[in-house]
Amino acid sequence: MSDLGAGFGYLMKGQRWVAQHGRWFGFGLLPGLVTLVVYAGALIGLGYGADDLVGWATPFADDWSSPWQGLLRTGLTALVFVFGLFLAVITFTAVTLLVGQPFYESLSEEVDRSEGGEVPESGLPLWRELWISARDSVRILLRVALYGIILFACGFIPVVGQTVVPAIGFCVSGFFLAEELTAVALQRRGMVLKDRLVLLRSRRLLALGFGVPLVLAFLIPFVAVFLMPGAVAGATLLARDLVDPDPDTEPRPGTADSGDVPPAPRAWSA
């Protein structure tokens, strides 16, 4: 259980780092502000249209008597909005990281530089980094969508659907949110998605301790924007301690695929 506290500690360290480097905090706000405007519009639209969507999807309940029709459709409307919010929390980070790739790469490198030691660089052109980030984000979103569908279905189970399922949903969101954020630093170290997932699964509680509080904070409007720079900084600090800092150790095979990422300048261990 100590890993849970350690994960939360990295989140706090990242926020402190940007607080002490005000220029980088402002620099990291820009991508989140752009993405927030788009997502706010989408969620407002979902809030207004969810009841119509549920009504269209449940024509069999048109002739149901009160209160059963209202209970069914109100419950389904709430589930649709929660599902949309669940996806928004996960995709917000992916989209913000994609929009702000040059910003967050620079921020992450500065965190590495301030902590001392070698500063890994991918050595790839910007368009290639954007392509890899977009591709990996789609792969993560497909995994999240699969979990989301399963959890959505489980939401109809009495009691369990209203207690256990939301808790699992937050854990799933937190783990993948941690993956998205640490990817900024780990990708520079030559690690592809498969290896990043293996690494985080080996310290699952650490990832949850970092990601779940962030998911809960992201549910508060505008908070995600202001926490993103510190979240990237904290994820970089977390990534530094997950990888092997010994530069004399050879990287493990399989950390780069199809020429996407060159061999890491520093070795790592899972």
Write down the overall geometry. elongated
Computed over alpha carbons, the radius of gyration is 20 Å
* Percent of sequence in beta strands: under 5%
| Major sheet | none
Protein name: EI24 domain-containing protein
Pfam families: EI24
Main location: membrane
Region (Disordered): 244-270
At a glance:
The protein has 9 helices and no strands. By secondary structure, the chain is an all-alpha fold.
Provide a descriptive summary of the structure in words.
It is found in: Membrane. Keywords: Amino-acid biosynthesis, Cell inner membrane, Cell membrane, Membrane, Sulfate transport, Transmembrane, Transmembrane helix, Transport. This is EI24 domain-containing protein. It comes from Streptomyces pakalii. By secondary structure, the protein is an all-alpha fold. Helices cover 76% and strands 0% of the residues. 36% of the residues are buried.
Task: Provide keyphrases for this structure.
270 residues; mainly alpha; elongated
Give a topology summary:
Blueprint lengths: L1 H19 L1 H36 L10 H32 L1 H15 L10 H29 L5 H29 L4 H9 L2 H15 L4 H20 L28
Helix pairs in contact: 1-8, 1-9, 2-3, 2-9, 3-5, 3-6, 4-9, 5-6, 6-7, 6-8, 6-9, 8-9
